[in-house]
């Protein structure tokens, strides 16, 4: 929409509408940055730098747990979530306190309070909590699956090469699809266009910088 066409529309908004629009990720985010519809289990975003993975993750998670008012949780919202980053520095610098972090997205009245180490939790005004952790700790406590949590790629490489970067399929790119048999609805794990859930071949052809959002089934659902 060109500027001359935008101005009359923006001028017609009330202060409340204008403020709501300012923090509406459905308006500002691209279509492929919106949470997928349907009955899915894992949303894998596998793209290069600058795509907006952190902002997409934090905005959609915040919107998922945002109720009709700051003190009310939406129906079906989880009571506790876990947000995992590669290192403690990455978690705090980018996902919590950074420009796209939880403390800086959405309407200020809905933003969480952060308690740092050793608690590492985000608490929203409606009582919902998110526990923060990072792959460094997981690698130490689970040596048998340690390689699944990252892919080491040389900074000079053009992208992900399964032959050299994922020997014997022992890396996150190859292991993510292994969860397909555990999906509540197997068809939800079929290959989809960019922005949805992808399977091995599409994954191997893309860059290995990834952010994963995982939504657990609601209690009582199988």
Describe the structure.
The chain is α+β, with helices and mostly antiparallel strands. The protein has one domain. Helix content is 28%, strand content 13%. Strand 3 (113-115) and strand 4 form a beta hairpin. The radius of gyration is 19 Å and the shape is globular.
How many domains? 1
Strand order across the largest sheet: 2-5-4-3
- Shape verdict: globular
- The helix/strand series, from N terminus to C terminus, equals HHHEHEHEEEHHHHE
Helix content: 25-40%
Our measurement of the CA-to-CA distance between the termini, rounded to an integer number of angstroms, reads: 45 Å
Mean pLDDT: 75
Structural class: alpha+beta
Low-confidence stretches: 188-222
Number of strands: 6
Radius of gyration: 19 Å
Task: Give me the number of helical elements.
Answer: 9
Beta content comes to 5-15%
Salient structural properties:
222 residues, alpha+beta, 9 helices, 4-stranded mixed sheet
